Each structure stands twice: as structure tokens, then as C-alpha cells.
């Protein structure tokens, strides 16, 4: 159990470090768990430790969340933004519920698919980062409702591990006219209901398969994810405003290639 607990801690740190950057946190922890021999009943661990990342973003955005909901009764812009986030969240609810079992039993169990998605996603992210498009939207609160819904539809691609929820939403927002900081920030806002919903639904589906060791691993992973995500969230917006997303794209491509080579070698 000690070795598995240490692995759970490492995977939690990996989750927190990668959840809000466009490299696919789920893809990374699934691949790391595969090569480290981590036992995750029902693949619940990989979803439930996202609670740590959720609390990290809620902590950072607590003041803004309070102001948003406090101003909603008398501020049309606040009400429209809340509606925009809910509209963007809606497609993930439908697809997540309908495809949950296929995602967990097939897609989560195919390391080669995850590696290929990392590489393809990295190429797409490089292309999106270099597009010479004049941004039309410079604040997440100003994204029109149809644009927000479109970003939510694109987010559903991240049901395939290796695609990246943040990567899909960021590329979608960039393609629809958001600047780089706005794309990342709307991805943060959308992560709150999306990840909370995934956590609640997976907990309901898999609570029976987790024994005491499984809950211990989830708790350890949760704490480590919270600590790592708290650091990354504070750093990311400033970084992408100055440097864009190329670093993350090249990281995805490199990891995908290394994983495919390791799988081909029989690891």
C-alpha cells in the first residue's frame, strides 16, 4: 500500500500541475498510472482527485464569484455571463452522461490512443497559437452566448483522454475570436461546473468500488492536486498573455512520441 500511496501522491501532483494547462491532465495521469502499475478501481481515482483542482480555482476566484453572483440581480452583464458559462457546460452534461461507461472502460484503457491524441492536440495547439487573427473579445464576460455554447460543444472532444479539456476550450475560444488571456480565463470559469459535475457523477457511479485503500489514495491525490493547482492557476494567465501556448504544444508532442516508443518497446 505504501508504494501505491506514494504513486497516488505523485499522480495528484501531476493532476494539479496539468489540469489548467492545455496538455490533458487525465491523459497524463492515465499514462503515468499505466507505466507505474497504479491500480485504480473503476478509474475513479483519476476523476475524483480533480476535486483538489476545483477547490484551487474556487479559492482563487472566490472574490470574483461573490461579486458576480452578488451583482447578478441588478447587472445584466453578470446575468448574461452566468448564463454563458451554464450554456457552455450543458453539452458536457449530455455527452458525459450518455458516454460515461464507454469513456471509462474503453477510452481510459487505451494508452496508444491517448498518446496519439496528445500529438494531434499539440499540432492543433501550435497552429491555433500562430494564427494571425485579430481578437474580437478581450474579456471572458463579453463572450456572446452562441460563442460560449460553441466552446462548450468543442469541450466535449476532451471526453477522449489526451485531447485536454483546457486545450479544447482554449483552441475553441481562440478560433472564435478571443484573445489568449480571455481564452484561458473562460476555460477556468468553465472548468468549475464541468469538473464539479464530473466529480459528483463519478462519485455516484463508483463509490461502491472504492475500498479503504482506494479512498486513502483519493484523499492523498486530492491534497497534492490542490497544492499544485493553486500554484499553476496563479501563474498561467500571465504566462500565456506574454508567451502564448507553444511550450505546451511541444510538450504534448514530445510526451506522445515518448509514450508511443515505450509502448512499441513492450512497456
Brief description of this entry?
With 267 residues, the chain is mainly α. It is built from 12 helices and no strands.
Descriptive overview:
76% of the residues lie in helices and 0% in strands. By secondary structure, the protein is an all-alpha fold. The chain has one domain (2-264). The longest helix is centred in the last third of the chain and has 32 residues, at 212-243. It is globular. 43% of the residues are buried.
Domain tally: 1
Average pLDDT metric: 89
- Main structural class: mainly alpha
* Count of DSSP-assigned helices: 12
Catalytic activity: di-trans,octa-cis-undecaprenyl diphosphate + H2O = di-trans,octa-cis-undecaprenyl phosphate + phosphate + H(+)
EC number: 3.6.1.27
Membrane topology: Multi-pass membrane protein
InterPro entries: UppP
Salient structural properties:
267 residues
Compile the SSE list and pairings:
Elements (H helix, E strand, L loop, with lengths): L1 H17 L6 H12 L8 H4 L1 H11 L1 H10 L4 H30 L5 H20 L14 H11 L9 H11 L4 H27 L5 H32 L2 H19 L3
Helix pairs in contact: 1-2, 1-11, 2-7, 4-10, 4-11, 6-8, 6-10, 7-9, 7-12, 8-9, 9-10, 10-11
Amino acid at each position: 500500500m505504501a508504494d501505491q500511496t506514494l504513486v497516488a501522491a505523485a499522480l495528484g501532483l501531476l493532476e494539479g500541475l496539468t489540469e489548467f494547462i492545455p496538455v490533458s491532465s487525465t491523459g497524463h495521469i492515465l499514462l503515468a498510472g499505466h507505466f507505474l502499475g497504479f491500480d485504480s478501481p473503476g478509474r475513479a481515482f483519476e476523476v475524483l482527485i480533480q476535486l483538489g483542482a476545483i477547490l484551487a480555482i474556487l479559492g482563487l476566484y472566490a472574490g470574483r464569484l461573490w461579486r458576480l453572483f452578488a451583482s447578478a440581480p441588478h447587472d445584466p452583464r453578470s446575468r448574461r455571463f452566468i448564463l454563458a458559462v451554464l450554456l457552455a457546460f450543458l453539452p458536457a452534461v449530455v455527452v458525459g452522461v450518455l458516454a460515461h461507461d464507454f469513456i471509462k472502460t474503453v477510452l481510459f484503457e487505451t494508452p496508444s490512443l491517448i498518446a496519439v491524441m496528445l500529438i494531434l492536440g499539440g499540432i492543433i495547439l501550435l497552429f491555433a497559437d500562430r494564427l494571425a487573427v485579430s481578437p474580437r473579445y478581450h474579456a471572458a464576460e463579453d463572450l456572446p452566448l452562441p460563442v460560449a455554447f460553441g466552446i462548450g460543444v468543442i469541450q466535449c472532444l476532451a471526453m477522449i483522454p489526451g485531447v485536454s479539456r483546457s486545450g479544447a476550450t482554449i483552441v475553441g475560444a481562440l478560433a472564435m475570436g478571443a484573445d489568449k488571456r480571455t481564452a484561458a480565463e473562460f476555460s477556468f470559469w468553465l472548468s468549475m461546473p464541468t469538473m464539479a459535475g464530473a466529480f459528483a457523477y463519478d462519485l455516484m457511479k463508483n463509490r461502491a468500488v472504492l475500498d479503504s485503500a482506494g479512498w486513502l489514495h483519493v484523499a492523498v491525490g486530492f491534497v497534492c492536486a490542490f497544492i499544485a493547482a493553486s500554484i499553476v492557476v496563479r501563474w498561467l494567465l500571465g504566462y500565456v498573455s506574454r508567451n502564448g501556448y507553444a511550450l505546451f504544444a511541444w510538450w504534448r508532442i514530445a510526451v506522445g512520441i515518448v509514450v508511443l516508443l515505450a509502448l512499441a518497446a513492450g512497456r
